[in-house]
Amino acid sequence: MKPLLLAFPLCLLPVSSPAMEFRIDGETVHATGPIEKGDAAKFAATVAPQIDGPLWTVSFNSPGGSLMEGMRLGEAIHGVYAGTLVEQGKSCLSACAIAFLGGRAFGTYAHVVRREIEPGAQLGYHGFFSGRNDQVELVNEVLDQSRLVNALLLDYATRMREVDGGLLSKLLTTGPAEMEMIDTPAEIAGLGLALTGDPLPLPQDWPRAACRNAVQTMIGAFAEAGGRIGDDVRPMATTEIMRWRMLDDKYPIDDGTEAVRAALLGLDPGEAIDLMAGEPVHADPENPPIRVALDQGGGFLGNACYAMADPSFITTIVVNGIDRKATLRQVDPLFARDPNEPLW
Predict the structure, then answer these.
(1) Cα–Cα distance for residue pair 111/101, rounded to 1 Å
(2) Is 239 left (phi over 0), alpha (psi -120 to 50) or beta?
(3) Are residues 94 and 175 in the same domain?
(4) How far is it, in rounded angstroms, from Cα 250 to Cα 261?
(5) Total structural domains in the chain?
(6) Are 89 and 113 in contact (CB under 8 A)?
(7) Is the pLDDT assigned to residue 192 strictly greater than 60?
(8) Residue 186 has pLDDT above 50, yes or no
(9) 242 and 325 part of one domain
C-alpha cells in the first residue's frame, strides 16, 4: 500500500458541502461527490427501486465525508444486491471506502460479495476522529471514541462479509490526515476485491512467485516458503515433455513404479497429466507450462511445482514423489505476484 498525506483532515462528522450525486447510466450508478447526511435515504428512494438485475453497479468517485452516512450507504447498496466499483483515474476515500464494502452479488442464496477495482484507481482508508472544535479534550475520551468507531466499523465489515478484520484494523490505525491506498495483491484479497479492467502483464518471475504462494498455502503462515523454491526454472515446450517430467517427479523409477509409469505412458499425454494431477488441467499448448524445482525440508516433501498461465487464472501443481501426491490450485492471476508488492 502507498501512504498519501492529505492536505485536509477527513472527519467523522459531516461538513458543509454539496451532497453526493447519483447519476444512472444504463445499469451503472455514478456516485460522485462527498458523502453527507441523507445520502443513503436519497439512494434508497431514487436509485434502489430501479435496481432489478445482476449487472447493476455503483461506481464511486468521492473524497469521503460522513463516516456514519458511509456505513448507511453501504448497507443500502448491500440491501439491493448491487456491486461496487472504483474506476481507473477515480478515487473512493475515507467514508466512501467504507460504503464501497457494501458491494454484493445479485440474487445469490450464498453470500457473495462483488467489489471491483481497476488498476490505477484510488481506494483509500484511514482512521477517523470526531471533528470537535475544542482543543482541550481528555485523552481517555478520545481513546474511547476511537475504540467505539473502530468497533462499529469492524461490526459493519463483518456483516458485509469477506473482509479481513486484521487488515481493516491495521488500515484504521492510519492517521486521519493520511491515507493508505489499496494496491497490493494481499490487500485486494483481504478486502474481498476483484481486479477488473485491462489485465496487468505478468511479471518476469511469475512462475517462482506462483509456486512460492502455492507452497506457502500448503505449509501455512507459520513457516516461510521462500526457502523451498529452487533456482531451476524450465519451460516445457510440449505436453509430452511435461508428462515425462511429472512422471519422474511423482513416480521416480524404482521397484514400485514400473506398472504405473507404463500405464501412464500408454495414454494421451494430456490424459496422463490429468490423472497425475488428480483433476483436469487443460494444459494450453500456446502457454507452455513451466517447471520450478522445489527443495524439501521442514516437513515439506514437494519435488517440483508446475506453473501455467491463462488470461483468467494461474494453475499450479505441486508434486510430491515420496507420498505420490499432487496438489493442484487454479487461482486469480494476482496469485503469481509478490503479495505485498504494489501493482500500480
Answers:
(1) 13
(2) alpha
(3) yes
(4) 10
(5) 2
(6) no
(7) yes
(8) yes
(9) yes
Q: Which helix (H) or strand (E) holds 17?
A: none
- Per-residue pLDDT averaged across 38-50, rounded? 98
Furthest C-alpha separation in the chain:
83
Q: Is residue 148 part of a domain?
A: yes
pLDDT above 70 covers a percentage of the chain that reads 88
Instruction: Report if residue 143 sits inside a domain.
Output: yes
Specify the pTM.
Answer: 0.83
Q: Give all strands of the β-sheet with 83-86 in edge-to-edge order.
A: 21-25, 28-32, 57-61, 83-86, 115-117, 193-195
What's the sign of the alpha-carbon dihedral 167, 173, 174, 177? positive
Backbone φ and ψ for 201, nearest 5 degrees, come out as: -65, 145
Same domain, yes or no: 62 and 144: yes
Average pLDDT over residues 49-73: 96
Which residue range(s) make up the domain with 81?
2-195
Band of residue 101 on the pLDDT scale cut at 50, 70, 90 = very high
Q: What are phi and psi of 46, to 5 degrees?
A: -105, -30
Amino acid at 338: D
Mean pLDDT of the chain: 89
CA angle 340, 118, 91 (to 5 degrees): 95
- State which amino acid sits at residue 36: E
- pLDDT confidence of residue 182: 98
Q: How far is CA 294 from CA 139, 166, 216, 234, 290, in A?
A: 53, 31, 12, 12, 13
More confident residue, 11 or 238: 238
CA 249, CA 238: separation in Å to the nearest integer?
A: 17
Whole-angstrom distance, CA of residue 33 vs CA of residue 20: 5
Calculate mean pLDDT across residues 300-328. 94
- What whole-number distance in Å separates Cα of residue 203 and Cα of residue 224? 22
